[in-house]
Amino acid sequence: LMTKLPDTGISIFTHMSQLAVRHGAINLSQGFPDFDCSPRLVALVAQYMRQGYNQYAPMTGVAGLRERISAKVEATAGIYYHPETEITVTAGATQALFTAMATVIHPGDEVILFEPAYDAYAPSVRVFGGIPKPVALNAPDFAIDWEAVTHLMSPKTRLIIVNSPNNPTARVLSDTDYRRLVEILRDNDCYVLSDEVYEHMVYDGVQHRSAMHYAGLRERAFVVASFGKLYHTTGWKVGYCLAPAALMAEFRKIHQFNVFSVNTPVQHALAEFLNDPEEYLELGAFFQEKRDFMLEALSGTRFRALPCQGTYFLLADYTAISALPERLFCEALTEQRGVAMIPVSSFYSEETNQQLVRICFAKQRQTLEQAADRLALVS
Ligand code: PMP
Ligand code: GLN
Protein backbone atom coordinates (compact mmCIF):
# COMPACT_ATOMS: atom_id res chain seq x y z
CA LEU A 1 0.00 0.00 0.00
CA MET A 2 1.18 3.53 -0.76
CA THR A 3 -0.74 5.05 2.13
CA LYS A 4 0.63 7.56 4.63
CA LEU A 5 0.56 5.92 8.08
CA PRO A 6 0.97 2.17 7.54
CA ASP A 7 2.39 1.56 11.02
CA THR A 8 -0.19 3.54 12.97
CA GLY A 9 -2.87 1.62 14.88
CA ILE A 10 -5.83 2.75 16.99
CA SER A 11 -4.99 5.38 19.59
CA ILE A 12 -4.11 4.36 23.13
CA PHE A 13 -7.21 6.29 24.31
CA THR A 14 -9.51 4.15 22.18
CA HIS A 15 -7.67 0.99 23.20
CA MET A 16 -7.87 1.63 26.94
CA SER A 17 -11.46 2.91 26.82
CA GLN A 18 -12.54 -0.21 24.92
CA LEU A 19 -10.71 -2.41 27.41
CA ALA A 20 -12.41 -0.57 30.29
CA VAL A 21 -15.84 -1.17 28.76
CA ARG A 22 -15.08 -4.85 28.12
CA HIS A 23 -14.03 -5.42 31.75
CA GLY A 24 -16.54 -3.08 33.37
CA ALA A 25 -13.62 -1.03 34.73
CA ILE A 26 -13.74 2.53 36.02
CA ASN A 27 -12.36 4.54 33.13
CA LEU A 28 -9.71 7.03 34.24
CA SER A 29 -7.89 6.60 30.91
CA GLN A 30 -9.29 8.69 28.05
CA GLY A 31 -9.67 12.35 29.01
CA PHE A 32 -13.35 13.25 29.23
CA PRO A 33 -15.74 14.18 32.05
CA ASP A 34 -18.20 11.52 33.27
CA PHE A 35 -20.60 14.28 34.34
CA ASP A 36 -22.83 16.35 32.10
CA CYS A 37 -22.34 19.85 30.77
CA SER A 38 -24.55 22.77 31.81
CA PRO A 39 -28.26 22.12 31.08
CA ARG A 40 -28.51 25.79 30.16
CA LEU A 41 -26.00 25.24 27.36
CA VAL A 42 -27.95 22.22 26.09
CA ALA A 43 -31.13 24.28 26.17
CA LEU A 44 -29.45 27.00 24.12
CA VAL A 45 -28.42 24.52 21.41
CA ALA A 46 -31.98 23.15 21.27
CA GLN A 47 -33.34 26.68 21.14
CA TYR A 48 -31.15 27.66 18.18
CA MET A 49 -32.05 24.43 16.39
CA ARG A 50 -35.76 25.15 16.86
CA GLN A 51 -35.24 28.69 15.64
CA GLY A 52 -33.92 27.31 12.36
CA TYR A 53 -30.17 27.81 12.70
CA ASN A 54 -29.61 24.53 10.89
CA GLN A 55 -27.73 25.38 7.70
CA TYR A 56 -24.06 26.07 7.00
CA ALA A 57 -22.33 28.54 9.25
CA PRO A 58 -19.92 31.05 7.69
CA MET A 59 -16.64 29.35 6.75
CA THR A 60 -14.67 31.22 9.43
CA GLY A 61 -17.26 30.66 12.16
CA VAL A 62 -20.45 32.41 13.31
CA ALA A 63 -19.63 36.13 13.62
CA GLY A 64 -21.12 36.43 17.11
CA LEU A 65 -19.00 33.55 18.36
CA ARG A 66 -15.80 35.00 16.93
CA GLU A 67 -16.65 38.30 18.61
CA ARG A 68 -17.26 36.59 21.97
CA ILE A 69 -14.01 34.62 21.63
CA SER A 70 -12.15 37.83 20.92
CA ALA A 71 -13.70 39.44 24.00
CA LYS A 72 -12.91 36.42 26.17
CA VAL A 73 -9.29 36.28 25.05
CA GLU A 74 -8.91 39.99 25.65
CA ALA A 75 -10.53 39.75 29.10
CA THR A 76 -8.55 36.73 30.29
CA ALA A 77 -5.22 37.07 28.48
CA GLY A 78 -5.16 40.78 27.74
CA ILE A 79 -4.40 40.33 24.04
CA TYR A 80 -6.63 41.44 21.20
CA TYR A 81 -7.30 39.14 18.25
CA HIS A 82 -9.51 40.59 15.54
CA PRO A 83 -12.67 38.50 15.07
CA GLU A 84 -12.78 39.17 11.33
CA THR A 85 -9.24 38.26 10.44
CA GLU A 86 -7.50 36.49 13.33
CA ILE A 87 -9.99 33.96 14.74
CA THR A 88 -11.40 30.83 13.10
CA VAL A 89 -13.83 28.36 14.66
CA THR A 90 -12.77 24.75 14.14
CA ALA A 91 -14.09 21.21 14.63
CA GLY A 92 -12.34 20.82 17.97
CA ALA A 93 -8.74 21.61 18.80
CA THR A 94 -7.77 18.52 16.80
CA GLN A 95 -8.82 20.06 13.49
CA ALA A 96 -7.20 23.37 14.40
CA LEU A 97 -3.91 21.57 15.06
CA PHE A 98 -4.17 19.56 11.84
CA THR A 99 -5.04 22.57 9.70
CA ALA A 100 -2.28 24.70 11.26
CA MET A 101 0.20 21.97 10.40
CA ALA A 102 -1.19 21.70 6.87
CA THR A 103 -0.73 25.46 6.52
CA VAL A 104 3.03 25.53 7.14
CA ILE A 105 4.56 22.05 6.78
CA HIS A 106 6.10 21.18 3.41
CA PRO A 107 7.53 17.74 2.63
CA GLY A 108 10.93 17.42 4.29
CA ASP A 109 10.31 20.18 6.86
CA GLU A 110 11.34 19.43 10.41
CA VAL A 111 8.98 19.88 13.34
CA ILE A 112 10.23 20.03 16.91
CA LEU A 113 7.95 18.63 19.57
CA PHE A 114 8.37 17.67 23.21
CA GLU A 115 7.77 14.18 24.48
CA PRO A 116 5.76 12.94 26.22
CA ALA A 117 3.56 14.46 23.47
CA TYR A 118 -0.16 14.34 22.74
CA ASP A 119 -0.70 11.41 20.42
CA ALA A 120 -2.01 13.39 17.44
CA TYR A 121 1.07 15.57 16.86
CA ALA A 122 3.68 13.30 15.26
CA PRO A 123 1.32 11.34 12.96
CA SER A 124 -0.24 14.61 11.75
CA VAL A 125 3.21 16.04 11.03
CA ARG A 126 4.03 12.94 8.97
CA VAL A 127 0.79 13.14 6.98
CA PHE A 128 2.05 16.45 5.55
CA GLY A 129 5.50 15.04 4.78
CA GLY A 130 7.09 16.67 7.82
CA ILE A 131 9.73 15.02 9.96
CA PRO A 132 9.02 15.00 13.70
CA LYS A 133 12.07 15.93 15.78
CA PRO A 134 11.17 14.89 19.31
CA VAL A 135 12.89 16.26 22.39
CA ALA A 136 12.42 13.72 25.19
CA LEU A 137 11.61 15.09 28.65
CA ASN A 138 11.81 12.83 31.66
CA ALA A 139 10.20 12.35 35.04
CA PRO A 140 10.02 13.65 37.64
CA ASP A 141 10.14 17.27 36.49
CA PHE A 142 10.02 17.02 32.66
CA ALA A 143 12.19 20.14 32.38
CA ILE A 144 13.02 21.27 28.85
CA ASP A 145 16.69 21.18 27.91
CA TRP A 146 16.74 24.34 25.77
CA GLU A 147 20.36 23.66 24.76
CA ALA A 148 19.15 20.45 23.13
CA VAL A 149 16.44 22.40 21.34
CA THR A 150 19.00 24.93 20.08
CA HIS A 151 21.07 22.08 18.65
CA LEU A 152 18.05 20.58 16.90
CA MET A 153 17.21 23.82 15.11
CA SER A 154 18.19 23.85 11.44
CA PRO A 155 17.18 25.79 8.33
CA LYS A 156 14.67 22.98 7.79
CA THR A 157 12.91 23.57 11.11
CA ARG A 158 9.49 24.90 10.11
CA LEU A 159 7.43 24.46 13.24
CA ILE A 160 7.75 23.96 16.97
CA ILE A 161 4.80 22.54 18.90
CA VAL A 162 4.26 23.45 22.56
CA ASN A 163 1.46 22.33 24.87
CA SER A 164 0.98 24.07 28.20
CA PRO A 165 -0.66 23.14 30.53
CA ASN A 166 0.68 19.82 29.33
CA ASN A 167 -1.08 16.59 28.60
CA PRO A 168 0.15 14.22 30.04
CA THR A 169 2.80 15.72 32.39
CA ALA A 170 0.40 18.19 34.09
CA ARG A 171 3.24 20.76 33.97
CA VAL A 172 3.03 24.39 32.96
CA LEU A 173 5.72 26.19 30.94
CA SER A 174 7.42 28.96 32.88
CA ASP A 175 8.21 32.50 31.82
CA THR A 176 11.84 31.39 31.49
CA ASP A 177 10.82 28.60 29.12
CA TYR A 178 8.94 31.01 26.88
CA ARG A 179 11.83 33.50 26.91
CA ARG A 180 14.25 30.81 25.84
CA LEU A 181 11.91 29.88 23.02
CA VAL A 182 11.68 33.51 21.88
CA GLU A 183 15.49 33.69 21.81
CA ILE A 184 15.84 30.49 19.84
CA LEU A 185 13.29 31.53 17.25
CA ARG A 186 14.58 35.09 16.83
CA ASP A 187 16.56 34.47 13.67
CA ASN A 188 14.62 31.50 12.35
CA ASP A 189 11.89 31.06 9.81
CA CYS A 190 9.93 28.86 12.13
CA TYR A 191 6.30 28.91 13.24
CA VAL A 192 4.84 28.07 16.64
CA LEU A 193 1.84 25.86 17.29
CA SER A 194 0.68 26.41 20.85
CA ASP A 195 -1.87 23.89 22.12
CA GLU A 196 -3.54 25.63 25.08
CA VAL A 197 -6.70 23.56 25.45
CA TYR A 198 -6.18 23.31 29.24
CA GLU A 199 -5.59 27.07 29.67
CA HIS A 200 -8.15 27.49 32.48
CA MET A 201 -7.18 24.34 34.39
CA VAL A 202 -4.27 25.55 36.53
CA TYR A 203 -3.92 25.07 40.26
CA ASP A 204 -2.34 26.45 43.44
CA GLY A 205 -2.15 29.93 41.98
CA VAL A 206 0.09 28.78 39.13
CA GLN A 207 -0.31 31.11 36.18
CA HIS A 208 -1.01 29.95 32.65
CA ARG A 209 1.21 31.83 30.24
CA SER A 210 0.16 31.83 26.63
CA ALA A 211 2.40 32.03 23.56
CA MET A 212 0.39 35.15 22.71
CA HIS A 213 1.98 36.96 25.69
CA TYR A 214 5.35 37.02 23.95
CA ALA A 215 5.55 39.31 20.92
CA GLY A 216 8.31 37.16 19.41
CA LEU A 217 6.00 34.17 19.55
CA ARG A 218 2.67 35.81 18.89
CA GLU A 219 3.80 37.09 15.48
CA ARG A 220 4.36 33.50 14.31
CA ALA A 221 1.98 31.47 16.47
CA PHE A 222 -1.19 29.51 15.98
CA VAL A 223 -2.87 29.34 19.40
CA VAL A 224 -5.38 26.53 19.75
CA ALA A 225 -8.25 26.15 22.26
CA SER A 226 -11.23 23.82 22.76
CA PHE A 227 -14.80 24.30 23.96
CA GLY A 228 -14.78 20.60 24.76
CA LYS A 229 -12.47 21.38 27.70
CA LEU A 230 -13.99 24.74 28.55
CA TYR A 231 -17.59 23.54 28.92
CA HIS A 232 -17.33 19.75 29.51
CA THR A 233 -18.53 19.07 25.96
CA THR A 234 -15.80 16.91 24.41
CA GLY A 235 -18.44 15.26 22.20
CA TRP A 236 -19.39 18.48 20.47
CA LYS A 237 -16.01 18.96 18.82
CA VAL A 238 -15.85 22.73 18.63
CA GLY A 239 -12.69 24.74 19.21
CA TYR A 240 -10.85 27.65 17.68
CA CYS A 241 -7.56 28.88 16.36
CA LEU A 242 -6.00 32.33 16.83
CA ALA A 243 -3.23 33.66 14.58
CA PRO A 244 -2.01 36.96 13.12
CA ALA A 245 -4.05 37.98 10.06
CA ALA A 246 -1.52 36.99 7.39
CA LEU A 247 -1.10 33.51 8.86
CA MET A 248 -4.81 33.11 9.51
CA ALA A 249 -5.60 33.94 5.89
CA GLU A 250 -3.46 30.96 4.83
CA PHE A 251 -4.99 28.75 7.54
CA ARG A 252 -8.47 29.54 6.23
CA LYS A 253 -7.55 28.55 2.67
CA ILE A 254 -7.06 25.03 3.96
CA HIS A 255 -9.85 25.11 6.53
CA GLN A 256 -12.41 25.83 3.79
CA PHE A 257 -11.54 22.62 1.97
CA ASN A 258 -11.11 20.52 5.10
CA VAL A 259 -14.37 21.05 7.05
CA PHE A 260 -15.54 24.30 5.39
CA SER A 261 -17.55 25.20 8.50
CA VAL A 262 -18.56 23.97 11.93
CA ASN A 263 -21.90 23.00 13.57
CA THR A 264 -24.15 26.06 13.37
CA PRO A 265 -26.56 25.81 16.36
CA VAL A 266 -23.73 24.85 18.71
CA GLN A 267 -21.77 27.94 17.65
CA HIS A 268 -24.73 30.22 18.36
CA ALA A 269 -25.26 28.57 21.74
CA LEU A 270 -21.58 28.90 22.66
CA ALA A 271 -21.61 32.57 21.65
CA GLU A 272 -24.47 33.25 24.03
CA PHE A 273 -23.02 31.13 26.82
CA LEU A 274 -19.71 33.00 26.60
CA ASN A 275 -21.52 36.09 27.89
CA ASP A 276 -21.25 34.50 31.33
CA PRO A 277 -17.53 34.37 32.19
CA GLU A 278 -18.20 32.67 35.53
CA GLU A 279 -18.75 29.40 33.72
CA TYR A 280 -15.11 29.17 32.72
CA LEU A 281 -13.50 31.27 35.44
CA GLU A 282 -14.61 28.66 37.98
CA LEU A 283 -12.96 25.85 36.05
CA GLY A 284 -9.66 26.00 37.94
CA ALA A 285 -11.28 25.78 41.38
CA PHE A 286 -13.69 23.11 40.16
CA PHE A 287 -10.93 20.80 38.97
CA GLN A 288 -8.47 21.67 41.75
CA GLU A 289 -10.95 20.18 44.20
CA LYS A 290 -11.02 16.96 42.16
CA ARG A 291 -7.24 16.93 41.86
CA ASP A 292 -6.86 17.36 45.61
CA PHE A 293 -9.29 14.54 46.28
CA MET A 294 -7.36 12.25 43.93
CA LEU A 295 -3.96 13.23 45.41
CA GLU A 296 -5.26 12.55 48.89
CA ALA A 297 -6.78 9.23 47.83
CA LEU A 298 -3.56 8.14 46.14
CA SER A 299 -1.57 8.92 49.29
CA GLY A 300 -3.41 5.98 50.85
CA THR A 301 -2.23 3.62 48.09
CA ARG A 302 1.09 2.31 46.83
CA PHE A 303 0.90 4.67 43.84
CA ARG A 304 3.05 7.78 44.21
CA ALA A 305 1.56 10.86 42.57
CA LEU A 306 3.75 13.43 40.83
CA PRO A 307 3.00 17.15 41.23
CA CYS A 308 0.09 18.38 39.11
CA GLN A 309 0.09 22.08 38.15
CA GLY A 310 -2.62 21.92 35.50
CA THR A 311 -4.89 19.90 33.12
CA TYR A 312 -7.30 17.25 34.35
CA PHE A 313 -4.62 14.60 34.41
CA LEU A 314 -2.02 13.58 36.92
CA LEU A 315 0.86 11.15 36.72
CA ALA A 316 1.50 8.40 39.24
CA ASP A 317 4.49 6.11 39.75
CA TYR A 318 3.76 2.44 40.42
CA THR A 319 7.31 1.20 41.09
CA ALA A 320 6.23 -0.02 44.54
CA ILE A 321 3.53 -2.21 42.99
CA SER A 322 4.83 -3.86 39.84
CA ALA A 323 7.83 -4.33 37.59
CA LEU A 324 5.61 -4.64 34.51
CA PRO A 325 6.19 -2.12 31.72
CA GLU A 326 3.54 0.59 31.56
CA ARG A 327 1.22 -0.74 28.86
CA LEU A 328 1.09 -4.24 30.31
CA PHE A 329 0.59 -2.79 33.78
CA CYS A 330 -2.35 -0.65 32.58
CA GLU A 331 -3.95 -3.61 30.82
CA ALA A 332 -3.53 -5.85 33.87
CA LEU A 333 -4.88 -3.15 36.21
CA THR A 334 -7.96 -2.75 34.00
CA GLU A 335 -8.60 -6.47 33.72
CA GLN A 336 -7.81 -7.53 37.28
CA ARG A 337 -8.49 -4.43 39.41
CA GLY A 338 -11.12 -2.65 37.37
CA VAL A 339 -9.42 0.72 36.92
CA ALA A 340 -8.20 1.95 33.52
CA MET A 341 -5.35 4.46 33.09
CA ILE A 342 -2.99 5.46 30.28
CA PRO A 343 0.62 4.25 30.00
CA VAL A 344 2.89 7.30 29.72
CA SER A 345 5.15 5.40 27.29
CA SER A 346 2.44 5.84 24.65
CA PHE A 347 3.33 9.55 24.51
CA TYR A 348 6.92 8.81 23.42
CA SER A 349 8.14 7.78 19.96
CA GLU A 350 10.98 5.69 21.40
CA GLU A 351 10.36 2.81 23.72
CA THR A 352 10.43 4.05 27.32
CA ASN A 353 9.43 2.74 30.71
CA GLN A 354 9.32 5.12 33.67
CA GLN A 355 6.72 3.07 35.60
CA LEU A 356 4.27 5.94 35.15
CA VAL A 357 0.55 6.04 34.46
CA ARG A 358 -1.70 8.96 33.55
CA ILE A 359 -4.89 9.31 35.57
CA CYS A 360 -7.83 11.46 34.41
CA PHE A 361 -9.62 13.03 37.36
CA ALA A 362 -12.38 14.79 35.38
CA LYS A 363 -14.86 12.51 37.11
CA GLN A 364 -17.70 12.73 39.61
CA ARG A 365 -16.73 12.43 43.25
CA GLN A 366 -18.43 9.04 43.42
CA THR A 367 -16.37 7.70 40.50
CA LEU A 368 -13.14 8.94 42.08
CA GLU A 369 -14.10 7.42 45.44
CA GLN A 370 -14.82 4.06 43.85
CA ALA A 371 -11.55 4.14 41.93
CA ALA A 372 -9.67 5.09 45.09
CA ASP A 373 -11.19 2.13 46.97
CA ARG A 374 -10.04 -0.23 44.25
CA LEU A 375 -6.57 1.31 44.01
CA ALA A 376 -6.08 1.07 47.78
CA LEU A 377 -6.30 -2.73 47.42
CA VAL A 378 -3.49 -2.90 44.86
CA SER A 379 -0.30 -3.94 46.60
N1 PMP B 1 -4.72 18.78 22.51
C1 PMP B 1 -4.60 18.18 23.71
C2 PMP B 1 -3.33 18.35 24.48
C3 PMP B 1 -5.65 17.42 24.20
O1 PMP B 1 -5.51 16.79 25.38
C4 PMP B 1 -6.83 17.29 23.46
C5 PMP B 1 -8.01 16.51 23.96
N2 PMP B 1 -7.70 15.36 24.63
C6 PMP B 1 -6.90 17.91 22.22
C7 PMP B 1 -5.83 18.66 21.78
C8 PMP B 1 -8.10 17.76 21.34
O2 PMP B 1 -9.14 18.62 21.66
P1 PMP B 1 -10.55 18.51 20.93
O3 PMP B 1 -11.32 17.44 21.63
O4 PMP B 1 -11.15 19.86 21.06
O5 PMP B 1 -10.29 18.14 19.50
N1 GLN C 1 -7.39 14.17 24.55
C1 GLN C 1 -7.91 13.02 25.22
C2 GLN C 1 -6.88 12.42 26.17
O1 GLN C 1 -5.76 12.87 26.22
C3 GLN C 1 -8.32 11.96 24.27
C4 GLN C 1 -8.92 12.38 23.00
C5 GLN C 1 -8.95 11.21 22.07
O2 GLN C 1 -9.36 10.12 22.46
N2 GLN C 1 -8.47 11.42 20.90
O3 GLN C 1 -7.20 11.49 26.85
Automatic annotation (TrEMBL):
Keyword Transferase in annotation: yes
One Pfam family of this chain: Aminotran_1_2
Segment forming the signal sequence: none
Aminotransferase class I/classII large domain sequence ranges: 26-375
Names of the cofactor(s): pyridoxal 5'-phosphate
GO molecular function, one term: kynurenine-oxoglutarate transaminase activity
Database matches in PANTHER family: FI04487P
Listed name of the protein: Methionine aminotransferase
Provenance organism: Parapedobacter composti
